[in-house]
Amino acid sequence: MKASKMLISTLKEAPNEAKIDSHILLLRAGMIKNEVAGVYNYLPFGLRVLNKIENIIRKHMDNAGCIEILCSALQPKELWEESGRWMKYGPELMRFKDRHDREFCLGPTHEEVFTSMARDLIKSSKNLPMNLYQIQTKYRDELRPRFGLMRGREFIMKDAYSFDKDEQGLEVSYKNMYDTYSKIFTELGLHYQAVLADTGNIGGNGSHQFMALSDVGESEIVYCDNCNYAADVEKATIFVDIHDDEQLKELQLVQTINQKTIEEVSNYLKIDPKKTAKTLIYHDYANNKIVACVLRGDRELNEIKLVNALNSNENYLELATDEEISQIGTYHGFCGPIGISVEVYVDEEVTLMKNIVVGANKKDYHYINANYGRDFTGIVCDLKKARENDLCPICKKPLKQERGIEVGQIFKLQTKYSEPMKCVYVNEKGQNIPMVMGCYGIGVTRTLQSIVEQYHDEYGIKWPLNVAPYHAVIVPINYNDEAQQKLALKIYQYLLDNKIEVILDDRNAKPGFKFKDWELIGIPYMIICGKRSNEEIVEFKNRQTLLKDEINYKDACEKIISAVKNI
Ligand code: ATP
Ligand code: MG
To answer: Which atom of ligand 1 is nearest to the CA of 108?
Structure first.
């Protein structure tokens, strides 16, 4: 392709909205263009990368025995009523009515559609197991669309759904997808970690997320170097190591005027925050109740664990307001588990602590020497967020913590959809048995941006060769110079003949301007035709290493051809 005929839309400065490097670079390199918040158009270079990523995903899915289809984004309300999600899904679901007042949504995911597809089309148990997938556009009215393609309101997902006869079958299908995802993210060059994940309202212990490791990731993971335990902090459990042998002391009410936070109270009473417990009051709208949660003072509450303990829903759980707190007879900043009028959920760690400080449910008062079992009880569960240096639940060694971008997630759905939607097969005894399902998603556009996040420098993007929009670019210093133009055209033809995706920069512009464009866009190899063109010597530059070589044009071409062959 000749640069003069291409749509190159590089920008000197990124628009203000872009906050993280990968978003800034995708905009500046002219890969994507913003329409409204969370909605992007893919420009020629971006689209080429997207197609390559999709094809790598497709290759591995096909190799794993999955079957590709393509479903509509438009989904009728009735399907979502069958699964019970029309009410439950919340404001992220983009709903609308057609001219006949019939209700629809734009699919944020396709469990209902694929379940109905399998129910209608898989006629015989001989066709099981089956795994159907698509690469398709999804819509989610995200509360805070941000970071470009990382969290869009429209994005591309590869979603797959497996249908098995039984649990053992699902185990095999799930493992197959776990392995396939590992191959996909490895081939895409991502530094990633597979972690145990929470299953949300789906339940069970069957989900993994694939996290591209990055400081800008919205997810936190903990992992153990010693035994390979790795989990999203939403899911992570820890080994609790408390052996407090203190004799129980007498419970005492102490005045703590205006000392509300754990920091204030522990400073004021000169007590280690680890000897205090905080009590958080939540309003669970799903179950229509107010609850108190007690955990060690220096801990953070993991809301997902609370959602699970309450059998509630993330979208329906909120910290109680000061007014709601007063209505249950206590005071913000002085809440505690002793004598409180609502259900109490106690983190297991608190049950092992002795003589601790807790709020007294009385303005400007705390109790000291409170003890679980003697002074208060409650429903014991795990509510705390794991963090660095907590102990691994498997081998008890200190855990490490990192941030990650969730690029994929796999779930064992079991019969959550097949049962209500009557997606069944007939067994040997003639009985209708619900198919056992799994679902498997990859955020394709989020993956694209994650690659940029991991592969860039101050000059621009450094695409790995297998997903780069083009393999190579030829830049004559001055295209009007006869020797340079002649050599450039010769190289261009030679590379095209060898199936290299190559650009010839025939633009009438300063060399520095041209170099900057290609470095920003991130083309892996650059061949510069300059002063020594009549000797057929070129400058050969590698975008990853930034190393430059003066070599014969043929050698430069051969290096590119052989690198592309080895992709
Ligand atoms: P998140 O927790 O980041 O909102 P999710 O767990 O809701 O994501 P899934 O339902 O598991 O997402 O969707 C499968 C994949 O689709 C995710 O792993 C992620 O890579 C991608 N994805 C989800 N939401 C978005 C979004 N708003 N924009 C871009 N990609 C997304
Ligand atoms: Mg997910």
So the answer is: 10
The DSSP code sequence of 522-535 is: T-SEEEEE-GGGGG
Nearest to 251 by CA among 355, 372, 336, 344: 355
Q: Which two tokens stand for residue 399?
A: 């855990």
Q: Is 148 in the pocket of ligand 1 (CB under 6 A)?
A: no
Distance of CA 108 to the CA centre of its chain: 15
CA of 67 to the centre of ligand 1 (A): 22
Going by alpha carbons, the residue nearest to atom 16 of ligand 1 is 443
Surface-to-core class of residue 311, CB atoms within 10 Å of its CB (0-12 exposed, 13-18 middle, 19+ buried): exposed
Tens of pLDDT, residues 318-370:
999 999 999 999 999 999 999 999 999 999 999 999 999 999 999 999 999 99
Which ligand lies nearest to the CA atom of residue 159 in the structure? Answer: 1
Pairing of strands 67-68, 94-97: unpaired
How far apart are alpha carbons 375 and 307 in whole angstroms?
26
Q: Residue 215 half-sphere exposure, CB side, CA atoms within 13 Å?
A: 2
Q: List the one residue out of 316, 327, 315, 309 whose CA is nearest residue 287.
A: 316
Separation of CA 408 and ligand 2 centre (Å): 7
Element (H, E) at 61: helix 44-63
The torsion angles phi and psi of 517, rounded to 5 degrees, stand at -55, -50
**How many Å apart are CA 187 and CA 61, to the nearest integer?**
13
108 lines ligand 1 (CB under 6 A): no
As a whole number of angstroms, the distance between CA 67 and CA 52 comes to 19
How many Å lie between the centroid of ligand 1 and the Cα of residue 139? 11
Helix axes 444-454, 21-28, angle to 10 degrees: 100
Report whether 311 contacts 201 (CB < 8 A).
no
Q: Considering every ligand atom shown, identify the ligand nearest to the alpha carbon of residue 110 and give its number.
A: 1
* Count of CB atoms situated within 10 Å of the CB of 466: 17
- Amino acid occupying residue 317: L
pLDDT in tens, 240-287: 988 888 999 999 999 999 999 999 999 999 999 999 999 999 999 999
Number of residues in the chain = 567
Distances (CA, A) of 269 to 254, 265, 382: 9, 6, 27
pTM of the model: 0.92
End-to-end CA distance of the chain: 21
Of 214, 221, 446, the one to substitute when testing ligand 1's pocket (max ligand atoms within 8 A of C-beta) is: 446
